[in-house]
From TrEMBL:
Keyword terms, alphabetized: DNA-binding, Transcription, Transcription regulation
Protein name in the entry: Helix-turn-helix domain-containing protein
Organism annotation: Lacticaseibacillus suilingensis
Statement: the UniProt record of this protein carries the keyword Oxidoreductase: no
Residue intervals of the HTH araC/xylS-type domain: 430-529
UniProt xrefs under PANTHER family: ARAC-FAMILY TRANSCRIPTIONAL REGULATOR, REGULATORY PROTEIN POCR
Domain Response regulatory, chain residue ranges per copy: 5-121
Phylogenetic classification of the source organism: Bacteria, Bacillati, Bacillota, Bacilli, Lactobacillales
Pfam families named in the record: GGDEF_2, HTH_18, Response_reg
Amino acid sequence: MGKYSVLFVENATEIAAMQDMVDWEQLGFTVLGGTDDCKAAQEQAVLHRPDVVVTELTLGGMSGLTLIQKMKALLPEAKFVILTDTAALASAKAAMPLGVSAYLEKPISAAELGHTFALLRKQLDAEAAASANMQSLRQYYQTSLPVMQANFYAALINGRVAAEDLPRYLSDYQIPLSGPCFACLLLHTSSTLGPSGVDPVLLRTSVLHQAKAFFGANWQVAIFSYLANTVIIVQLCRAEDAPGLTDEADRFCKEVRTTLGAVVTIGVGDVTADLLDLPQAYKEARTAVSYRSIYGASRVINLQEVEPTTEMTFSSSSDGGLSDLFKAIHVGPEAAIETAVDTYLARMNETATSIPEHTVVTAEMIGSLYRFAVNNHLQVSALTDNLKGLYLRLPELSPESLRQWLMTVAPAMHEQLKAARENSSTALIQNAKEYVRVNYSDETLSLNDVCQALSVSNSYFSTLFKREEGLSFITYLTNFRLERAARLLLETNEKSQVIGHLCGYADPNYFSSTFKKHFGESPKQYRSGLVANES
């Protein structure tokens, strides 16, 4: 049996021909079989974990490139071989960056097939040997570095990197960005306006590789794929270099239109001196790309040039003012909400100095408020009942009317959040009391047990219980046990040490002292006093 395994994803005739064409065992391979069904191929990949997958560009149900992408996710270490004819040879070669190890042009000869798999055997042997020593770990780190870097960049542009962690990430992931200035570009490759018959994934990949060569020739850049777009972080010597970058980006759009037939729109964000400010620059670049329906595709759009005063002030009004307003809605009281509304509207008026700017800022406010309501499960009719109508109506309101609308929506949100918290707190306290009622006789019952049962933290529960009940949870548990013990002393003839055990006290002496501290007399005196009073 061969050392490595191979799976064919091809029509039955081709599979049979290739199985008989060479001595697979002598080459070091075992043929697992084959299928022409893409779904079945993925199932066999999971089941048998082949070392090599042989397929072609055109398959029933999905393209070979799509299949390779899906199987790459299942088999990161597998080798892929593409079968192609002369007409599709260019596409096969272009697929090499996707992780394809080799391509074979039909008709295939036994010599060519044997030579290809002999080379694959050497690659697989080398990888197997490397994985057994420290060198393989270093190689794996270097191989994985682009993926780790891309993950870091994605976290960076989404604001998920803390300031204290940034230096470590820059060092660990060998990030080649030291400043002093940074710009963010978003490349959107149209999937509908590009050349017909070309796989969109392959086209985006080709654009990404061409962008690396184009922009990397003049600047230190970080380029990665994110959400079906290409994002480029460009390191600039001066903020004043941004216009030159915009001009070059526009030239790139024309170049890829000529060389690849790709319709690429590039959005450019504002220049920043701090990597941690890139989320705002990325947001601006993404917004700029969305304006392609107005300004046209296959070009660069820089909002700082198209609308010079808009984007800088949008951040201060939408992000800062609304954050304060949302905080006030969460915490209250209504006076604080009113102050936050007035502060936000004042910033909004400073930002929007024209009718178009006012329309955009108002639309951002509506969108942010709606997302806040949805994320917090709020139903405020003035906001949620006719969202489309709001986008048409609110920009037309006077400042006084807009304030009145906000002062209707924001307090309503606060009251719903407050009611939800109160209901949640009441239910949590009741569940805790029920847990005590059922488990109070357990001598090991503790605050930690109750919190684990309720899936809350000790600190949160302790604070909530003290606030709602006026005493600590431990005091409540002690009182509950002692009240139960007092009832048992009056209603049964059991010895006090037995009653103490039934109420969660393993030590009779501790039970007696705790009881006396609570009631002012020992369990025996408590029982005797009742008998004396009755006689």
